[in-house]
Amino acid sequence: MGLLAVATIMAGCGSEPPQPVKVDAKVDAAARLKAAKDAKIRNAAKVKANELGQIPVLMFHRVIPSPQTTDDRTPKQFRADLERLAKEGYVPVTAAEMVTGKIDIPAGKYPVVLTFDDSSPSQLTLNAVGVPQKDTAVAIMKEVAAKYPGWRPKATFFVTRDLFGKTTTEEQAQALLWLKDNGFEIANHTRDHLNLRSISQAQVEEQIGSIGKTIEQLTYTKPVTIALPYGAQPKKKDWALNGKGYKHKGAFLAGYTPAPAPFSKSFDAAGVPRIKVMEKKGDCAQFCSEAWLDWLKKNPDMRYTSDGDPKTVAYPKFKQPYLRKSFSAMSLPY
């Protein structure tokens, strides 16, 4: 037995070592990419992602104790508006993030765009030490964010020459830079809030370009979006997007429906609808925020639901015909 064992060992020592198995690098990379994509598809299906769904873009104006028009909200009402959104899984994104498709929110959550028109002091007023005053819109947003983990104080302010009631360049810059430094979007609402439908192209460009220049001088950033006064488009709607001294990615209306996703064929950058914030009263029984949020809750398949990955556009396969071709490379049907 001993001699046989030694012979076996000696024979083994003299044999050639096993050859390494060659792996095709391209095949291996393709397999890893497929596995990663399959995992993303499973995750998207798990949360019922629908990034071709509709997005509520809410339109606010003043937040004041004694409302004077149906556009105004009291601090109590505004706080309740935000808390409902937080409880129902909405996460704010800016108007610029929406129109450019940079919607980066957790999987299973729904984007909402909070917009504020006219740059009222009730939206933002800073105290002597640069902190937003109690019951202003910004202060309330920060309170709600502290109360609800996952909610974030993010919104778009469409400003006019009023600039939150500030008259000196220093005060105007302080307000706008505070918004910029705290993650809010500063956007265009024209200088004088004129009806753009009734004026010439040169006047449209002057109204839009002049306030855009002011914003750029005070903040070193150019506006990416614009809200059209009264929701009125110019005689040629492209004038709101492109003109002398400005180039916007989206123009927002004052309409009465949720907005199509930026990845959808229905999306029109020159006319993005918004929703007036109000309870179910009169015309608002069907066309304002409470009614539309109720509808989206009852029809979740129509609502934009995130897959959690801003680099993909996930949706059920049967919705593929609605995808804009420019986003084909990001497409993730399941």
Span of the ends, CA to CA = 64 Å
What proportion strand?
A: 5-15%
In total, the number of strands is 12
Distinct helical segment count? 9
Oligomer state of the chains in this structure = single chain
Order of helices and strands: HHEHEHEHEHEHEEEEEHHEE
Q: Please state the structural category.
A: alpha/beta
Largest sheet: 6 strands, parallel
The average pLDDT score comes to 94
Description of the molecule:
The chain is built from nine helices and twelve strands. The protein is of the alpha/beta class and 334 residues long. The strands form four sheets. Strands 1, 2, 3, 4, 5 and 10 form a six-stranded parallel sheet that branches. It has a two-stranded parallel sheet with strand order 6-9. The longest helix is centred in the first third of the chain and has 22 residues. The termini are far apart. 39% of the residues are buried.
Which features characterize this protein?
334 residues; six-stranded parallel β-sheet; two-stranded parallel sheet; 12 strands; alpha/beta; 9 helices; single chain; globular
